[in-house]
Amino acid sequence: MRNAVVEVLDVTKTYPGGGARALDGVSVAFAAGTFCAVMGPSGSGKSTLLHCAAGLDRPDTGRVVLAGEEIGTLREPRLTQVRRRRVGFVFQSYHLMDSLSVWHNVLLPQRLAGVRPDRGWAKDVIRRVGLAGREDDRPARLSGGQRQRVALARALAGRPEVIFADEPTGALDLATGREVLQLLREAVDGLGATIVMVTHDPAAAAWADRVVFLADGRVAGELAAPTADLVAARMTAVSAR
Ligand SMILES: Nc1ncnc2c1ncn2[C@@H]1O[C@H](COP(=O)(O)OP(=O)(O)OP(=O)(O)O)[C@@H](O)[C@H]1O
């Protein structure tokens, strides 16, 4: 794929005592400046793929290339260093530090990575996600949707090559979830971000440019220009296999 930011090449992964392969020869690439959703039945390997692609875990075999660097075989602490500098994360449960203000949460990954935070840009992304004026608040004072906006600002603040989002709307009501998806879309269209999102929700996947389907640890097809109906139909077919 041209302009691939992340390439996963023939990756396998089995968990100790886990029985069948969680990933069984998966090859997939994610292009710069695009929004891709990963879907599949429960246990199909979505989280495992995301963890391997993001350098949170290492594959047993195969390659993972992130922005031209082979990370599948990197060991700690180099792997953590690459992850901190090049990858942003948005999790279902936000993973914010309650003891830190919004502002310090947003800057934390850059601090941990040992890079000087770009404060002007951090201010800009906080404004873009609709949290201008809330910089000094603690996450505990914010709603779920606002917390996820902080997590998105935190992910964007370090200008990572790619942002991985794991069920980012899973804990939110429909309307709030839609607002977060719109912000993810705007991050791609307006800021040139690259986003890979795991989701169970066809309506969420429809915000992406492309959907990759997994089943039994393998790629089971993909869909360009998805709509919620097309995604739901594909999911039914994939689940029935
Ligand atoms: N830490 C682990 N230890 C053992 N087995 C695991 C572990 N994590 C995942 N697995 C197994 O690997 C397979 C793939 O799991 P994975 O969590 O990647 O799937 P998923 O598609 O993300 O599922 P879900 O939609 O339920 O989150 C499953 O069979 C699961 O039971």
TrEMBL record:
Pfam families for the chain? ABC_tran
The regions listed as transmembrane in this protein's record are none
Q: Which residues form the ABC transporter domain?
A: 6-241
Q: Which UniProt keywords apply?
A: ATP-binding, Nucleotide-binding, Transport
Query: Per the record, what is one GO cellular component?
Result: plasma membrane
From which domain of life does this come?
Bacteria
Question: Which SMART domains would you find in this protein's record?
Answer: AAA
Q: List the molecular function annotations (GO) for this entry.
A: ATP binding; ATP hydrolysis activity; transmembrane transporter activity
Identify this protein by name: ABC transporter
